Amino acid sequence: MAKTKHVGKYVDIRTDFGMKFYFGREENKILLIEFLNSLFEGEKVIKDLKYKSVEHDGDHAEMRRVVFDLHCIGSDGEYFIVEMQQLFQDFFKDRAVYYTSRLISKQLARGKEGNNYRLPEVYFIGILEFRLGGEGGNVALRTTDRPYFYDVALCDKHTHELFYDKLGYKLVSLPNFKKTSTELNSVMDQWFYLLKNLSTMDKLPTFLDKRIFGLIFDIGEIGRLTKEELMSYEASLKHKRDAESVYNSAMRAGRAKGYADGIEEGIEKGIEKGIEKGIEKGMEKGMEKGMEKSRKEAALKMLQKGFAVEVISDVLELSIDEIKKLT
Q1: Is residue 158 classed exposed, middle or buried when 0-12, 13-18 and 19+ CB atoms within 10 A define those classes?
Q2: Do 236 and 194 share a domain, yes or no?
Q3: Of the candidates 225, 254, 280, which is a domain's last residue?
Q4: What is the separation of C-alpha 278 from the centre of its chain, rounded to a whole number of angstroms?
Q5: Helices 292-304 and 227-256, interaxial angle, to 10°?
Q6: CB 293, CB 326: distance < 8 Å
Q7: What is the domain range of residue 238?
Q8: In the structure, how many helices (H) and strands (E) does the chain have?
Q9: How far apart are CA 17 and CA 298, in angstroms?
Q10: CA angle 233, 234, 239 (to 5 degrees)
Q11: Would you report the helix, strand and coil content of the chain in percent, each value rounded to 5?
């Protein structure tokens, strides 16, 4: 395997390998506990975690299997789904709700008489490398002081009072986190800064709490990886960069076909200019002729690079049959 060019001295936490290396191993679980506690900001204190299986089958054969990046249960019986999302996906919010709903439904005792619907706490934690906008017209509300952090719960739309306190979504949009080292006002800020910049650091900065982050810098040096770990990391890093390249190429192809800011932004500008059929034409012609062609070109490129058909289907949202027909 050709050696991948690394940026920085430490394993990039924003790769699939890096996330599981730092957060997904029993011997390092204190890191995940500290990270989760920083997100909850005293709302709850996680004392311990147990790792659970990341794969869950549906109740019926036709139901979709879900695979979590990380799946843990706290000492108080609460469930945590932790996911790193590198590329924007349509209906990301829908998928997050689906994941938590499947996990909740699994906890109901089957065949038990009575009306016992007592449920555990379930939380979805998302580390996103894209700006979280609105899918399907559902534009997310952002706080003015922390536009990079979404702390979502079921509440009354008018009074904003919490309706149900055992289901939550905590999402960080890293592109929106732009604080400098002198602007880090909390441990959570320090975590977000680390997530965004670890791969370019050459030592533990003095402005990061050594008691919390020291272990990351102790174990994360690329030079300390075993041969097998290094190969896995290089493959993960290459996958991340290739996926980003394919996505960016697809977006450039969309812009080249007349959509200055991509398909969705093009449709929005059409509406603003009063083009009554902007949505219809944009969706039919743009998606069918523009993005379909560019996606298939990108899929063929990924096939030639050795990507699995399932991975290509997930990244580019093409059916497996469509991808197989390209070969």
Answers
A1: exposed
A2: no
A3: 225
A4: 31
A5: 160
A6: no
A7: 229-324
A8: 11, 8
A9: 24
A10: 100
A11: 45, 15, 40
